[in-house]
Write a structure and sequence with these properties.
467 residues; alpha/beta; Glucose Oxidase, domain 3; 8 helices
């Protein structure tokens, strides 16, 4: 029997399992998808794995607003969303943290340093020997549209921010990415070694709780129902699946559990107030064809404001771009790009709830975007500023035709089982012994940046608490 079962081989789960194994703990890592990412996911330019229907992607039905249905992809492969996402690898600002004892930014900085090798910046803010490579687009991998965007930001008086992971004054600069030599580097590729036992195609159905203690999980392994036991269980299945598993295991709002015939193990506000970043996409057609090269990341440059972020893309939308042809040096052309305008401190909160007691039925996701009047006003103001940037040289010279703005989401869903109401600062679930959480479910309030780098940090930090 292993010391620890880690349910979910995603961004944080791979980190946690690797660090625990290095500390001498026996670990069984369960991943619902395959242990090996398909070859089309290697190039940082390819976002095919984020498209619903791809075998490396979960596809969760949800609603951004009552009238706006949306399918939410999440990584279903070892490495999780770090294997399929846009490789945006930006730390939160220092004020985003402080989630309890051990979570102040000053306490987290050594872990940020330990998890990375930053190829552009050194000094006290950065690491040079960690598993995750961090690079910023430059030279041939910086799209002419992104370069023009940065010039337009300067023309409008925004400060430059060449290093968005330094915790300095927000401004305009290139986006850090978990990319090496044009290849997206997932946490599975960066962290996992032979010391971690991995079971692929293991779909966890619930946590087994006996007399108030988690003793294992029930899972379908290659389609065969089985019960796996361990001294401790850690849910690291991502903010959607982790919350869903808690509810299926009887940990959640009692009325909701009883409505589906699930015995109540623990009263906890699971899924009652999740958060994500609403986005407005401003597509535009370019005046000339722009080169796209293998290894280019989707979001190339960003202007960070007090409560919004405007991103310049270098890869055409929608989110499925595979490099044509076998040559890694081959370039092709883009005529359709976008500015992506995100609200980073929304007031509106979402709700994740059960749709059935059957684990095969996905949960309900109600984002409830823009229910707050303040959110609507702030996003509208940020969109207006995005259009002002499109009218500012030299970016104006590349814009032939802006298109209608479209409401989207940043895929940054977090806070479904937050520190405080659901867990203690060590990720231990209140009211259930030997059960922890280690993923973005823990994040108690919206961050001003995307949570990918923070998900890696959570894996590091929870592992340190468990050692």
């Amino acid at each position: 029997m292993p010391d620890v079962i880690v349910a979910g081989g995603g961004t944080a789960g791979c980190v946690l399992a690797a660090r625990l194994a290095q500390a001498g703990r026996s670990v069984l890592l369960l991943e619902a998808g395959a242990a090996t990412a398909p070859p089309e996911l290697r190039s940082a330019t390819s976002l095919a794995g984020s498209v619903p229907g791809h075998p490396a992607s979960w596809a969760f039905p949800g609603h951004l607003t009552p009238s706006r249905p949306f399918t939410v992809p999440r990584g279903r492969v070892l490495g999780g969303s770090s294997a399929v996402n846009g490789a945006y690898f930006v730390r939160g600002v220092p004020e985003d943290y402080g989630w309890g004892p051990g979570w102040a930014y000053g306490e987290l900085l050594p872990y940020f340093r330990a998890l990375e090798t930053d190829h552009d910046f050194g000094g006290p803010a950065h690491g040079d020997a960690g598993p995750m490579p961090v690079t910023r687009p430059s030279g041939a991998l910086l799209s002419p549209a992104a370069a023009a965007f940065l010039e337009a930001c300067r023309a409008l008086g925004h400060p430059e921010e060449p290093d968005k992971n330094a915790g300095d004054t927000p401004g305009a600069g290139p986006v850090p990415a978990n990319v090496r030599d044009g290849v997206r580097v997932s946490t599975a590729a960066a962290y996992l070694g032979p010391g971690v036992a991995v079971t692929e195609r293991a779909v966890v159905r619930r946590v087994v709780v006996e007399r108030g203690r988690a003793v294992g999980v029930e899972a379908d392994v290659d389609g065969v129902r089985t019960e796996l036991r361990a001294g401790e269980v850690v849910l690291a299945a991502g903010a959607i699946n982790t919350a869903h598993l808690l509810l299926l295991s009887g940990i959640g709002p009692p009325d909701e559990l009883r409505a589906y015939g699930i015995p109540v193990v623990c009263d906890a506000p699971v899924g009652t107030a999740f958060h994500d970043h609403p986005q407005a996409w401003i597509p535009y057609r370019t005046t000339r064809a722009l080169p796209v090269r293998p290894g280019m990341i989707l979001t190339q440059a960003a202007l960070d404001l007090d409560d919004a972020e405007i991103l310049a893309t270098g890869v055409p939308l929608p989110l499925a771009v595979d490099p044509p042809g076998p040559s890694a040096a081959a370039a092709w052309e883009a005529r359709e790009l976008a500015l992506i305008v995100g609200l980073t401190r929304p007031e509106s909160r979402g709700r994740l709830s059960l749709a059935s007691a059957d684990p095969d039925v996905p949960p309900r996701l109600e984002y409830r975007y823009l229910e707050s009047e303040a959110d609507r006003k702030r996003l509208d103001g940020a969109v207006r500023h995005g259009h002002e940037l499109l009218r500012t040289p030299p970016l104006r010279d590349l814009v032939a035709e802006p298109r209608d703005t479209d409401l989207q989401t940043a895929f940054h869903l977090s806070g479904t089982a937050p520190i405080g109401p659901v867990t203690d600062p060590h990720g231990r679930v209140h009211g259930v012994e030997s059960l922890r959480i280690a993923d973005t479910s823990l994040i108690p309030a919206p961050m001003r940046r995307g949570p990918a780098a923070t998900a890696v940090l959570i894996g590091e930090r929870i592992a340190a608490f468990m050692r």
